[in-house]
Design goal:
The protein has two helices and 36 strands.
Amino acid sequence: MNVKKNTLVALLLTCLMAGSTISAYADDYRPHLQVTTTNTTFSAGGKGVMGITLFNGGGYDVIEVEAILRSTVSGITPLEGAQMVFANIEESVSYEVVIMVDQDVAVGAYVVTLQLSYLINGYEEVDVAVPIGIVVDQPALPMVRITASSSKVTPGVVNLLRLTAQNIADVSISDVEISLSSATSLITINDPINYRISELGPGESATFDVSVSVLENTPIGAYAVTARVWYKNGMGVTSSQTISIPLEVTETAVTRSPVVTVRNLAPRSVLPGEGFSLSLEASSVGAPVYNAKAVISMDVAGRVSPMTQTTVSLGDISAGGDVKFSYDLLMSGSASAGDIPLTVSVKYVDAKGVQGTMTETVTIPVENLVKFSLMKDAVVSAEKGKTTTFEADLLLVGTGKVEFSSISIVPEEPVEKVTGSTEYIGAVDPDSPVPFTLLFKVRDNATVGSYDLKLKISYLDSRNVVQNRTISVPLQVVNPVVTTSTTTNDGGVWGWLRRLFGLQ
């Protein structure tokens, strides 16, 4: 009997409120807006479109009109068109508002509020609240059922749930959208969070797998995953359901603590002013970690600058798994030789839901910029089969001096090393020429022509490691000069003096 009485009351309120006209005004002699509504009847669990018309009932224009539809009723929500602005209303203006009614809203009459503000006579502001009646005439009828093949999940691991969505109505539904969520931080929906089905006929079903992570410290007990389902019926009306999918934890997990590490995959030396990529790998041993991200911190002296973002998302790292990531960095041109430490912090959530942070130090070796050349360009001319002396000044162009240096001839066709082909020159400072003298011999059977005379400079770098550089000097091989002797009748002292001064 009470059900029939409630239905009669709802129908009576529907008749009274449908197409109602409500006036909003300050005084009778001032222009005012009248509000009329259409389509104010809705079904629980669906969407509907309500029409609103604002009619200017006065003799003057109404300007700067703002209309906001608000609801204080739980489960009744204005969506599209809830807030509208009109510059001027001479006679009337109409628009539509999409209203969503949740499935748990009971059959009955409800009131939402249209807040109107506008100017009359071009200067005086009016602000008025207009009540609008809404009737829910039908309860929500479930059309979709979602079940899991197994409700048991294991803590500390990623569980695979097989869900089945079935149309339990006697009509087809289309555009089915399923959105999964968890009300507890102990259970996380990994993939997919959203699932779409184009159409389900009466009794038809669709099955899909969902990855669910359960934290290691989840207590034994009953839990649930919530599925919000949207769909359209044969009339094109959109409805929604909220479905609870029960889950059960029946055992506890063995407590394991993750050990997160970061290592440099390709360590190398960097020169001042050079851009370089730092390739790293984060790994977890003993237990998985979730929502990991890596943050790199630059050195306090500002010698290293980031070229890309300093925070990188690593996602989830399984036990025994690893994730590769990289940073693009720039070394300052003023950086001196040495080691520059950079810190990389990995922040994560472990299987107990506890936030953890691991910090590793990554060392960037910086080398001096070293380039050798000769003080002046030279072309060496050497005769076949003879030993030639080569004298020049060695110049270092770089960011720091080198120690324990030596320079030597490289034996390469047609050049041979002889005694005196190597000279120790010690420390070499930048922009400070160092003179040297080297001897070399051209083979007897060498072909006349142009070659390269190669010089090798060996030195110790800033880490006391032997380094080698090679420079080339143009070499011109010529035939030996033939010396002929002549006989003269001049003898004695005068002949000796002429020979001494090269006069004969």
